[in-house]
Predict the structure of Clustered mitochondria protein homolog.
Amino acid sequence: MTSGAAADVKGDDISSFPNGEHKNKDSEELDSGNHSTANSPDVPKLDQDQGGELANGAVPLGDKTLKLNIQPSVGEPFELQVNDNEMVQELYQTLLDRDSTCHRTCFSLHFNGQHLDSFIELKNVPDLVDGSTIIVIDEPFSVREARIHLKHVRELLRSGMGIDPMDVASAVDCSSFTFLQNINMQDKKDGKDGKSFDCVPPDFVLPGTKERSLAYLLPSPPPKNLLALRNISVSAYNPPPGPRKLKGDILYINVELCEKRLVHVTCCTKGFYVNASTDDVFNPLPSGQYRTVYHSLVELLNAVSPTFKKVYPLILKRKSERSLLERLPSTYPVFSWVSPALQGSELYSEDSTRSDELSQPFRVGYEDHLPGSIRDWNEELQTTFEMSRGSIMERIIRDRSYFKIHSDFINAAVRGATAVIDGNVIAINPADDRKTHMFIWQNIFFSLGFDVKDHYKELGGDAAAFAATAADLQGVKAFSTLENSKLCTLGMAIFDYRGYRVTAQSIIPGILEREQEQSVVYGSIDFGKSVVSDERYHGLLEAAARELRMMPHEVISGAEGNEKTLKLFTSYETKGIIGNDGRTYVLDLLRTMPPDVHFLENAEVGEAAKKAGYPRKLPHKLPAVRRELVDLFHENRCLQFIKVAAQHVRNAKDEKTEDEAVLAEAENDLGRVLVDITEGREPNTENSVIVAALAKAAVSAGSLRDDSLDIRFNPDCFSTLVRHAPGQSLERQRNLVIEICDFILTSQIPELVQQCLECVITPIDGEGLSEQLHMRGINIRYLGEFAKQVDPSSSFIRTLVFSELVCRSAKHIIRPFLNSVTAEQYSSCVSHLLSAVFGSGVGENVPMPNLTEKTNKKNNKKASGKKRAASGGWTTVTSASIWKSIVDECKSYFGYDLKASSLDALIESHGIQKISLLRRVCRSLGIQLAAKDYQLDSPNKTKSIFGEDDINNLYPVIKHQNPWTMDAKKLYGRGQQAMQLGQAREAFDCIAESVNLMTSVYGAMHAELAQALRCLARLSHVLHDSTDALNHQHKATMMSERVNGLDSGNTIMEYVNLAHFAFANLLINASLRLLYRARYLLLINYGEKHPIMAQIDSNIGVILFAIQEYESALKFLNSADSISKAVGEPKKLKTALITHMIARVHASRGDFRAALVAEKETYSTYVTLFGADNERTKESSDYLGILTQQAVTFQKKMMDANKSSSISQLLPIQIQAPSLSSILEVLNILNGFIIIPISPSFAMRPEPGSDSEEAEAEKSKALNQQLENEGLD
C-alpha cells in the first residue's frame, strides 16, 4: 500500500476497527471521541471487555490482542495494541494520525522483508506474533500520490484554521457543525484565574424573553487562525515536459509563503525540492539555495519558511485538542439551514485545492484513489448485499461493507443531483422537454419527478410522478429488509433541490442496451393491459410476498381471444428484469403496500371513515399505507385471533360441550397451535374444539381463510386498470384493505393523540411529530385528521400540529415557484416568498427589486418582457395571496380549514411561533439563511423581512434507505426489555455490546450509535457510575449534533441528559451552560409552552438553588410551574415537586408566607392524588408545620425589632444550603431516573431549627465543602 491508499484511509474507515479504536497510549487520536480535551469531560474511558462471548452467545469480535512495534521512517518507534482481526490498512491510519508521522503519506509496511497487503487481516500475516516489528518504508511518488499528498497536507494545515463555516454549512466533505466544543467540560473552574463564571443566565434564554435571534445558533469561531502559509496550488507549468518526465519530474507546485514570497516546488519520484522557476521563466532545476530533496512537503516548508516552522507545531497541538468525533466526517451529508453571513474574506478565503475539487462537476471525490475507472455502484451494492451472513463475523463484515458502499453511493448521488439541477450534466435525451430529461453521471441514473411521456396521465400527471418516487423508495426499503432474499433492488435516493425532485438510481447491467419490452420478464409496462410472468421469479417472490404480507393473486393478460391467466405475487406495476449479470432485479415498487382507500375517489370505505368525510380526493391516485401500519395491523389481528380462540376453548371447558379428554387435549395443544399460526406455519391439529375455536377466531380477525389466520393484502384489489381472474375472493380482500385503513382512524390516531395529551410522547418539532406518525403507520396526509382531534385541547401538541400544517402547505405552494426561475433569481425569489409568508403586507404597492441587469432605453421593453416570462409569477405574490393559497392547500390536501384570515391571526389563536415555523419551512425546502435576528414580529407590516443577502444557499433535502446491523438491533432491543424489567446490569451489558457492534459496522459516527450511547449513559448513572455516564453522554451529544443537526429535537434532549451527568460529576458551570443551550434551542424550535421546557426550567432552577442564586432560581422554577400547569403531565407529580422546590427557595430567601402558599399547593396535590394517609402527603404536612413554625418565629423577631428600633435581632438569618446529594435526587426525579436512593428523599430534608438539623448537616458536610471550595457558593 502506497500513498494513495494511505491517504484514502479516512476517519470513517475506522469503522473496520472491532471497537472503533486502537488501544494506543501514544496516539490518543484514535480514541473514538474519548480524547480528553479542554472541551470534553476529563473522566476515564469505559474499558469494554474484548474477550468472552457476546450477550447473545455469539463469537466475540476480537479473538486475540497483539502488541506490535512500529518502526516509522521518521520519528521514534512506538508500540501499538491491535486486535488480530483488524486489517493491515488500519495501521496506515495510525501513522497518518500521529504527530510525528502524519505529514508522510507515500509509504508501505513491511514485515520480515515482505510487503504487507493492506487488505488482509493481521491474523493472516505469516509469523506475525505479539511483539513483532513492522517497518515503514518510503515509496516513490507518482502523480496520483503527489495529488493525494497535497490534499492531505492541506487538510493538515486547515486544522489550525478551524472549521470553514461556509463549507461546513454546505456539508463539504461530510463536515457538520458541533457547538459542544464551546462548552468547557473538563475543568470545574472556567476562568484562568480559577474563579467560576457568572451563573446568571443570558438575557436571550430568560423565561418570558421575546428575543428569538439566530445569531447564537452557530458555534463561535476559533480564537485565532494559525496561518502556516498563504496558499498552495498546482503550477501552471504542468504537466512536466517530456525531457523532465524522463528525469523523474511528476508535478510542479506553487507555494505562497507567509513571508509574501512565492516558492516553486518540484515533486519528483524521490520527493519534493525547490526549483529555480519564476513566474515568468520555467527552470525545473534545483534552486541554488535549497537543493535538498524531502519526502514530505511539510519537511521542505519547514526548511524554507521560518513562519511555517514556528506555526506548524502549534497546528499539530490544536489538531490534538480536537476530539475524534469533531474531526470525523459524518456518514451522510448534514446540511445546516443557518450559516454565517458571507462577509468578504473573513469567512471565505483563497484555497486552490478546494477550487480544483469543487468547481469540477464531473469529479466525485474518488478519482485520485481509483484512477482510470468509474465505480460500478450497482455491482458493488449487489456484491456486498449478497455476502455470506452465516456467522456473526461474516454478518459484521457484510453489514460494514454494504453500509460503506451505500454511504459512498449517497454522497456521490448528492453531488450528481446538484450538478444535474445546476445544469452541469448533459441529458441523454437533450432534444426532449427539460422536464423529461434523464441523465447519467458517474454510473448513476438521474431522472426528474415529472410525468414523462404521460406515463401517469390517468393517475394525476406530475403530482403522481412526484408521489411515485417516494412510494417506490418505501418499496425499496421494504424489500431491503428481507432476509436471505435473492431479489435485487437498485441503489436509490431522492433529492428535493431548488423545487425539483431528483431520483438517483444505480444502473442494471444491460438495461440501457435494450428496449423496455425486451427487458421486463415480470409485471406490466402498459398499466395492466398486458402482463408477463416468469417462473424464475415465482419462487423468489413467493417468499418475499409472505414476509411483506402481500397476497398472491391471478390476473388476465392479453387481448380478447388471446387471453391467459397469470399469477402475480406483487402488484402488476412491479417489474422484474434479469440483468446481464444474471441477477433478478425488481423495480417500480411503488405499489408494494396496500392502497389507502380513504383517498381513492368513489372507493368503498368503512363507517368510521364515512363519518370523518372520506373518501377524499388527492392530487394523485397513488396513495398507499405504510409498511409500519401493515405490521402493526397484523400484530393487532394476531392478538385478537389469539384472544378469541383462547376464550372459545375456555367457554367450551366451562360449558363441557365435549368429552373431558377432548377438552383437556384442546387446553394443552392450543398454545402450540397458536404459536405455529402466528409464526406462519400450518396448524397441525384435529381436535374439534381447537378447530372450532380457530374458525371463530378467523371470522373475528377478518382472516382471508376460514380455518386459520391469514392477514395478507392484494395491492391490486382496488385497481381498475388490471383484469382480475375469476374466483379471487375480491370482496374479502377489499374488506381487509378497508379495515386496515380504518385502523388508522379508529386506533392509531386516537392512541397517538392520547399519548401526546398525557405527555407520554413529547415531540419537539415537525420532524419529531412526523417520525412519531410514521412509527405508527400514519401517513402525513392524515395530519388534518390529527388536528381535528387535538384542536379542542390546550396541549402543546395542538400548536405543533397546526405549525406543521402551515409548513407543509407552504412547501406545496413555494416549490413550483422555485423550479420556474432562473439561477440569478433564486435569492430574490426565495427572499420575496419568505417575506410574503411571514409578513403582513408584503407585495402590496411595493416595487419589486430589479431582477435583471440595467438595460438601455432601447431594450427596456424587451428586457421587462423577459423578466415577466422568467419570473414564474413570483413577483406578483403578496402576503394575502400566498396565505389564501396556503389555506386552500391545507383544506384540499389535508382536509382541514385553518379558518384564519392571516398568519398573524392563526399565530394569535394557536400559539404558533414564527421563528419555529421559519425553521421548519427552511428545512423542508432546503433553504439556508444567514444567522441573524430577523425581527419576525416587527410592527412594520409592509417592509420585507428578508433581503437577497439573507439567502445564503439552497441545499438538497435527502431521502434514502438506512442500512442497519440486525445483530446490534437485536441486542439493543434486548437491553431495552431488560431496562423495563429493572435489570440494569443485564441491560448495560446488552447495550454495551450493541454499541460495540454498531461501531464495527457504522464507524464512530451514526444516529443509532448516538441513541445507544445515550441509553448506556443513563444505565451507567443508574448503576452509580457517574464518570462513565458523563463520558458516554458527551459522545452521544456531539454525535447527535453532527448527524442530526445542531438544533434537532434529539440534540436538545442530549443536552439535558449531559447537563444532568455533568452536575453528578460536580461540573456545575458546564451543567448550567448546557441547560441554557438546551433552553435556547427549544425556544427556537417550539417556544416556551412545551413540557420539555418545564423539565429544562426546573433543572436550571434546582441547580441555581443549589448554588444559592435564589432570585434566578425562582424565575425558572415559576416558569416550570406555569408551563407544567398549562401543558404538563396530567398526574401532576412533578408539578408538585416543583411547587415544593419553590417553597424551599422562598424559605431560603426568608419569605415564609410565599413558601407556605407554595407548599400548601404541594400538599393539596398530594391529598388529591394519594389521600391524607399517604407518606408523601404526611411529609408535605410536616414541612408545612416547620414552615409555620419558622414564619411565627420570624414574625416574632420582626415585632421585637420594631419595638427596639433595631434590626440586629433579625441578623443573621441562618439558612442551610441544600446538600448536593439531595439536589441530585431531585434532578433524578425530574429527569426520569429510577435509582435506588442512597439517602432520604429531598422532600424530607429538615429545615433550620428542627431536631434533626445537626445530623443532616453532618451528613452533607463533605459534599457542601467540596462545592464551597469550587467557588460556587
Q: What stands out?
A: The first strand starts at residue 65 and ends at 71.
